[in-house]
UniProtKB/TrEMBL annotation:
This is ATP synthase subunit delta. PANTHER family: ATP SYNTHASE DELTA CHAIN (PTHR11910). Keywords: ATP synthesis, Cell membrane, CF(1), Hydrogen ion transport, Ion transport, Membrane, Transport. It is a peripheral membrane protein. Pfam families: OSCP. NCBIfam families: ATP_synt_delta, PRK05758.2-4. InterPro entries: ATP_synth_OSCP/delta_N_sf, ATPase_OSCP/d_CS, ATPase_OSCP/dsu.
Length: 181
């Protein structure tokens, strides 16, 4: 079974618990911190992957390091240690956030532009694409990419809307090449 399928199962379980207790926002914040810790602390990953360290020592360590998180989040971490699935934490966090956003009608968008977008431009993109996607809100992550020359490329989930000058020039070139044949 692939890691993403397994991660989704754990994320669904935690999501349902959070929905029942109305603490999805708190769980998301905790999971983001945990994900960040696991991404940036290689020694933590090595410790938890070490077969010579007992599960109980690993669990005790995790209880101490993440003592401020909710019991539900901590229980999920401890279960991942028991099942030797600590390596799926980043996928679990990603799936959890995706489910939470979907339940609230929120989508994440990566917007590539040649320069940092202004507040007005960001708001206009949010409103336009929220209507187009039939969602309540669109969270924008602006990525500056000077190679696109101008315009914007927007990625929402698996969909890409490309209005960049670079792409328009490529299309024009293709039309000219096929017209000359």
């Amino acid at each position: 079974m692939s890691q993403s399928v397994v991660a989704k199962r754990y994320a669904v379980a935690l999501f349902e618990i959070g929905k029942g207790k109305s603490n999805l926002d708190q769980l998301e914040e905790e999971l983001l911190v945990i994900s960040d810790v696991f991404k940036n602390d290689e020694t933590l990953n090595q410790f938890l992957d070490n077969p010579r360290v007992s599960r109980e020592k690993k669990k005790e360590f995790v209880r101490n390091v993440f003592k401020d998180v909710s019991q539900d989040t901590l229980n999920t971490l401890l279960l991942l240690i028991d099942k030797r699935r600590v390596d799926i934490i980043e996928d679990l966090v990603s799936e959890f956030i995706k489910m939470k956003n979907e339940a609230r009608g929120i989508a994440e968008a990566d917007v590539y532009s040649v320069r940092e977008l202004t507040e007005e431009e960001t708001k206009q993109i949010q409103e336009t694409f929220a209507k187009k996607m039939m969602i309540n809100n669109l969270r924008i992550n602006n990525i500056v990419d000077p190679s696109i020359l101008g315009g914007v490329r927007i990625r929402i989930g698996n969909e890409i809307y490309d209005g960049t000058v670079k792409t328009q020039l490529k299309r024009l070139e293709q039309k000219l090449v096929t017209a000359n044949k």
